């Protein structure tokens, strides 16, 4: 199998049952060639189904393992907050797909099911009489987790519009309760800002100061070449992708529609988004691996949250074709999920390539790795979009390491 063909050959897989794109045939499994979109949908379904299925059945607390990192700082507390954590992380990744309409009959049916689970799950999370009722005010971590719920609702207004008025009010109040928590002086400022942006987006009173503080401080932390420090010092990790760039891009879209005060800043943010997307694409090796550096590496494909977000928003720079980004992300999905120990009893394990407990951080619980669902953002594009419809292309690493003549790369200040 040649690496340059991984975009296609990765999809010749053994189906093991349990999804709309994976069904058993008698006693033996059957090799079936899936389209890339079907492969993504299959992997998305396998990842997030246990969360939303059980939440819709009001059984998430019963079914979800109470697993934490071996380096955990406060096991009991981390387990208490894992439910809002997993809700926000799962929904933020599949929100664009939930928002989309159309597709094959199988995809339409799968989306219909997930929409039902998502709406019922949100209702259970907001129902104080439900087993899966979720408090948003247990501790500071929930400032983070609420922001991912807010991000999901912003990415999929369909979810918001299909909640009844009572549950809309309960959600609004739940997110507002996290104002009591002081954000860490780091990327956490963006979590406070996203919660306010959610309020602004759906017509509630919002606090411009929390947004302004985050935007102005991130501007101070911009260090050049499309990257920000995470707080007062630079760390060579993936937080520019996990949080910083996707959140800044979303804030620019929402707050830019409310005021022209940040027009110049948002233009800079757009250019920095583009530069960092170029860097991200070059980090993906010819076999779908990438440097396993920095904290939170167990977030797997969320290391490319930003690249996936740029593709979904059709904001890729001209240097990156949608097809090459699709193929690169397909390779990452395959590599990060192919280990036989990626899942245990259907639930994601803590690790990058399978179950690797030592890679966990002090704040990781069973909900943490589900931020990996954010690599699936381009499923929010219809199958007719060039991202899905254009023929497979090599990505940068494949071209370079197969000996092709290729354009060199240069840093950009963009301050």
UniProtKB/TrEMBL annotation:
Signal sequence, start to end: 1-22
Pfam families: DUF2264
Keyword list, A-Z: Signal
Domain annotation DUF2264: ranges: 37-395
Membrane spanning stretches: none
Protein name: DUF2264 domain-containing protein
Naturally occurring in which organism (per UniProt): Pedobacter psychrodurus
């Amino acid at each position: 199998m040649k690496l340059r063909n991984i975009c296609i050959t990765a999809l010749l897989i053994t189906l093991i049952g349990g999804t709309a794109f994976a069904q058993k045939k008698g006693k033996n499994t059957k090799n079936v060639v899936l389209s890339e979109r079907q492969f993504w949908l299959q992997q998305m379904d396998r990842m997030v189904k246990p969360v939303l299925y059980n939440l819709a059945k009001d059984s998430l607390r019963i079914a979800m393992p109470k697993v934490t990192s071996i380096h955990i700082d406060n096991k009991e507390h981390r387990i208490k907050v894992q439910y809002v954590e997993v809700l926000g992380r799962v929904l933020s990744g599949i929100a664009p797909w939930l928002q989309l309409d159309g597709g094959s009959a199988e995809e339409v049916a799968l989306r219909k099911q997930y929409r039902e689970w998502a709406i019922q799950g949100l209702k259970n999370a907001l129902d104080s009489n439900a087993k899966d009722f979720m408090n948003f005010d247990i501790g500071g971590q929930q400032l983070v987790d609420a922001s991912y719920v807010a991000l999901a609702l912003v990415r999929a207004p369909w979810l918001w519009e299909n909640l009844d008025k009572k549950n809309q009010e309960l959600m609004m109040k739940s997110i507002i309760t996290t104002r009591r928590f002081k954000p860490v002086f780091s990327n956490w400022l963006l979590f406070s800002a996203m919660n306010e942006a959610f309020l602004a987006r759906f017509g509630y009173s919002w606090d411009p100061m929390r947004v302004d503080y985050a935007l102005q401080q991130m501007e101070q932390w911009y260090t050049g070449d499309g990257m920000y420090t995470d707080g007062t010092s630079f760390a060579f990790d993936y937080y520019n992708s996990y949080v910083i760039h996707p959140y800044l891009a979303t804030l620019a879209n929402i707050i830019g529609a409310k005021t022209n005060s940040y027009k110049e800043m948002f233009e800079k943010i757009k250019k920095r988004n583009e530069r960092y997307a170029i860097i991200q694409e070059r980090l993906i090796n010819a076999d779908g691996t990438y440097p396993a550096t920095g904290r939170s590496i167990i977030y797997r494909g969320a290391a490319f949250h930003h690249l996936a977000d740029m593709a979904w928003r059709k904001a890729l720079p001209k240097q990156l074709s949608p097809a090459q980004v699709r193929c690169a992300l397909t390779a990452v999905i395959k590599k990060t999920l192919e280990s036989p120990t990626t899942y245990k009893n259907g639930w994601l394990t803590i690790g990058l390539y399978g179950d690797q407990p030592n890679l966990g951080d002090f704040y990781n619980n069973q909900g943490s790795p589900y931020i990996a669902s954010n690599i699936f953002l381009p499923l929010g594009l219809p199958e007719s979009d060039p991202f899905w419809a254009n023929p497979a292309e090599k990505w940068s690493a494949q071209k370079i390491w197969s000996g092709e003549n290729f354009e060199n790369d240069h840093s950009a200040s963009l301050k």
